Amino acid sequence: MKIAIALFPRFTATDAIGPYEILSRLPGATLQFVSADGGILTSDTGFLQVVTEPLDAAPAPEILVVPGGPTAATPVRDPRLLDWVRAAHNTSQWTASVCTGALILGAAGLLRGCPATTHWSDVDQLAGYGADVLPQRVVFAGKIVTAAGVSAGFDMALALAGRISGDAAAMAIQLGIEYDPQPPYDAGCVRKAPAPIRALVEQRMRQAG
Amino acid sequence: MKIAIALFPRFTATDAIGPYEILSRLPGATLQFVSADGGILTSDTGFLQVVTEPLDAAPAPEILVVPGGPTAATPVRDPRLLDWVRAAHNTSQWTASVCTGALILGAAGLLRGCPATTHWSDVDQLAGYGADVLPQRVVFAGKIVTAAGVSAGFDMALALAGRISGDAAAMAIQLGIEYDPQPPYDAGCVRKAPAPIRALVEQRMRQAG
């Protein structure tokens, strides 16, 4: 199982690392981090640098994963990335996104009429690509699977691992990474977070944009 | 707030990236990935390469975080890493570990008589360093905070974020990364996972050792 995770400048690290941590542990999996130019890419915070191969080093992955980041929603997306996503999707077994990575799938034209999800702050943008946006953490639609914001990539990848290798293999990965979450707060989605917390996050995201 | 995450060959990526994702979003935070020699380090799966600075580029972090990995438990740990952990702990405000990173804190002599936790597979080793091992996902003991396996770093870092910057700041980070986990299986800890799943994981961990 060949897996490729496509990075771009200012990617959000966990969007990529969650699926990496789970999918790379599937039996027989190999995984590449790729980007338009290859080389070292820096995450959204500016504090993490990851080494990537050029996109053409992963011409036909069986699973492609597109993470999000504050630049995923902008019109300056690299057309080489969109071309690669389209081509890889043509032959992939699974095409996945996390967070605003769904906007990249949308910009590549893959989500027209397709049920999908994204980070809660970008629902309207995703709908603008013709997606049928569902308020779910993970959405499967044929071979396309999209996840909500950042940390949802763990849940998406575990579900995908189960479909690919069976429940036992997925549960073994879950136990291996001790994924028995116990968040100390219950503010992880907009239905639960107090309104002032949401306002604070939206203000910061506009500043970071 | 200066944060340093100390990597070593074959680190487990999520052990490091979970705390990175949360702590680097604290107001005013800066974060460095460091390692004994600096340069590019490869994760346990072999598929992720991260750029690091040398340890002496982060001589006195206010928060130090030590992730785990299959080499964390071995006697071949780099003495320079242990020396740095000891020195950094002397002046840190918080000293944190995720997963078998606790074994590195233990080998550095920081956990004698100290309540602590680690990955479920390494409880006996941690006790061998004199730690009072608790079956908890996150353990605070003075300024030392330890987390259980891999994904527990998210819960640890969120709790730590709350202590450092207050509940509102921590909840804003939780909402920003949409950390409202919904694992598709309930096999994330040894009390819940079926016995054959545990046996499978233990077999794989011995092979990976």
UniProtKB/TrEMBL annotation, chains A, B:
Gene3D superfamilies linked to this entry: 3.40.50.880
**Matches recorded under PANTHER family:** ARAC-FAMILY TRANSCRIPTIONAL REGULATOR, DJ-1_PFPI DOMAIN-CONTAINING PROTEIN
Domain DJ-1/PfpI: where?
A: 1-160
Q: What is this protein called?
A: DJ-1/PfpI family protein
Cited Pfam families: DJ-1_PfpI (PF01965)
